[in-house]
Design goal:
By secondary structure, the protein is of the alpha+beta class. It contains 21 helices and 17 strands. Helix content is about 40%, strand content about 20%. Strands 7, 8, 9, 10, 11 and 17 form a six-stranded antiparallel β-sheet that branches. Strands 12, 13, 14, 15 and 16 form a five-stranded antiparallel β-sheet that branches. A four-stranded mixed β-sheet has the order 4-3-6-5. Keywords: Iron, Metal-binding, Monooxygenase, Oxidoreductase.
Length: about 575
């Protein structure tokens, strides 16, 4: 166990636990803590005016501190009061896993924190984005239920073969952009690779479409009116640059609707338009509207075709409730309906998400294929036949019979037994000495081996993943690259020690520290560092040391001239200090 569990985390399936990593709180440096504090102080000051009212309330309810990076264990003790928990992960995880965590009321938090050089925005998920962005809003019960329901539906969305490749490419880009010293040409190459993938994705998959909905709501959502929107999306709440940018007229505001599902986004750029929902209830309405377009609700020939195209483990559910989980390979269609399906490799059969005894992947190690639909010339489906009907059509134990289905699929053999569901409907018929034909083509032939024919008039659902999570070994996730920490050279270690000294002074545990001496070292040895100087300015102003404060401001003017990109960051923090003293 690499993390402290609780009642909510205990319910997580094993395949999700593989993504969890220890937070290692002691790994956060004093510089990391200063970055957190800078972003939080600035965000809370600004967001108190433009964020949804749940944000500030949620900071208190979820135990998010302005001055300290949140400890996962502390967060969990408070989150449990609202029925949620949090876990640490390494950067981006696969979208289906991310959403499945949400379905279990678990907030996924990338425990790394952005570098000082990327203090305004990072494409990589970090604890500022996850902890300070997502966590506070889930204290709103209606939004929390939307998030849970989104995860429940989203983890069933079917991908296509290119989705995982795109996920890996985005993850790689986010890592190298955040990594210290990455050559610009490597970043350019990675961005072009993503652009190339996006240009050639083909028809967007369900996971791609629902990922768009997630982006335009959970990550970059606005709430209220077009004229006076408020922020609730975590990407905006955690970005000190974009939270201000999105409130300007330069960003187009659009009423939130299902059209967001087909609106792509660029993770590397500020968003040119944003969607505004009138309230959180509207989010759930659009989500259910989108779910009605998914194979999990529509089933049919198109549903199983999506699974075939995805080349991923998925499940079809027949009208009897029989669920077949595996990698689907082919389908025979007749008049727009599936009349025969075939999986390859390990396949399991279930009913109501519970594997049927005797139908595990060991029993169907080489796949599972079956005719389905109605018998030719008979209006009554097998599943609707009473015992008298079955007797009349010779569908009972000990009979050697030929069943001809619509679509020219025939099965012939000796019936051994039938398996019924809780309603008493037959869901499987077991044959021996069996042969299955489609026209002249032999689809299956057995001698003494038993053959199980699925009973079902139609496919009512198709979705990502297995019906019974215990049927397959899903603990096999491998990532191509991992997040990186800044290199710990002697100069950086020295700088971290000075940050730690000033932090200790501010918190009253190191009052003998000479702030003037620290400032002299920073000015001479670390002339480009600005954040520690603004922290020293804050302390000088609080202590009424006007001369020292002016000396720091003079130095920061030099820093701004040498590094114009940080000028507004310095000015914003100095302004925030002065504002707090006046108020």
């Amino acid at each position: 166990m690499q993390y402290e569990s609780n009642a909510i985390l205990d319910k997580l399936p094993r395949h999700l636990k593989q993504f969890i990593k220890p937070q290692n709180y002691d790994d956060y440096t004093a510089i990391d803590q200063a970055v957190w504090r800078y972003v939080m102080r600035k965000n809370v000051d600004y967001l108190s005016k433009v964020a949804h009212k749940s944000y500030l309330d949620g900071l208190q309810k979820t135990g998010i501190s302005i001055d300290h990076i949140p400890n996962m264990y502390g967060m969990n003790r408070i989150l449990k009061e609202i029925g949620w928990a949090a876990v640490a992960v390494d950067g981006f995880i696969p979208p289906s896993a991310f959403m499945e965590f949400q379905a279990y009321n678990v907030l996924v938090i990338a425990s790394d924190i952005r570098q000082l050089e990327h203090i305004e925005y990072t494409p990589a998920p970090d604890i500022i984005h996850e902890g300070a962005g997502h966590a506070p809003i889930i204290a709103n019960p209606e939004y929390a239920e939307y998030l849970r329901r989104f995860g429940e539906i989203g983890c069933k969305a079917i991908s296509n073969a290119k989705d995982y490749e795109l996920y890996e490419a985005v993850r790689h880009l986010s890592i190298i952009k955040e990594a210290e010293g990455t050559p610009q040409e490597h970043i350019d190459t990675a961005e072009e690779h993503i652009a190339e993938l996006q240009r050639n994705m083909g028809e967007p998959s369900e996971i791609a479409l629902i990922r768009n909905l997630h982006w335009w709501t959970v990550e970059y959502g606005l709430i209220g009116t077009l004229e006076n929107p408020k922020i609730y999306g975590a990407g905006l709440l955690s970005s000190i640059g974009e939270s201000a940018w999105c409130m300007t007229d330069k960003v187009i505001k659009i009423p939130y609707s299902i059209e967001a599902a087909t609106t792509p986004f660029d993770i590397t750029q500020p968003q040119p338009q944003l969607f505004v929902t009138p309230d959180f209830a509207h989010l759930s309405k659009v989500l259910e509207e989108f779910a009605n377009t998914m194979a999990i609700r529509k089933g049919g020939l198109s549903g199983i075709q999506k699974l075939i195209d995805s080349k991923e483990l998925g499940t079809i559910e027949l009208s009897t409730g029989l669920q077949v989980s595996g990698n689907f390979h082919s389908v025979i269609a007749h008049e727009g309906k599936c009349v025969f399906f075939q999986s390859i490799g390990p396949t399991a059969l279930s009913y109501r998400e519970k594997e049927l005894v005797g139908h595990s992947i060991q029993h169907h190690a080489d796949g599972f294929g079956s005719p389905m639909g109605k018998l030719k010339g008979i209006n009554l489906a097998i599943e609707d036949m009473s015992p008298m009907d079955l007797k009349a059509y010779n569908i009972f134990e000990g009979q050697t019979i030929t069943l001809e289905f619509e679509g020219n699929v025939k099965i012939a053999g000796e019936i051994i037994t039938g398996t019924r569901n809780l309603k008493g409907e037959i869901i499987l018929i077991t044959f021996k000495n069996c042969i299955v034909h489609h026209g002249k083509k032999v689809l299956f032939k057995s001698d003494e081996r038993l053959y199980n024919m699925a009973v079902g008039e139609r496919i009512v659902s198709a979705f990502n993943g297995p019906a019974d999570l215990n049927s397959f070994d899903l603990v096999h996730h491998k990532i191509s690259s991992t997040t990186t920490k800044p290199k710990e050279n002697k100069e950086r270690q020295k700088l971290e020690r000075y940050y730690a000294q000033i932090r200790d002074f501010r918190e009253g545990t190191g009052t003998t520290i000479s702030r003037h001496k620290v400032f002299d070292v920073i000015k001479n040895d670390f002339p480009e560092d600005w954040l520690l100087s603004v922290e020293l300015y804050e302390l000088a102003k609080l202590n009424g040391d006007t001369d020292f404060a002016e000396e720091i401001v003079s130095h920061l003017e030099t820093v701004k001239q040498n590094k114009p990109k940080v000028g507004h960051l310095i000015d914003d923090d100095l302004g925030l200090v002065n504002k707090s003293l006046v108020s």
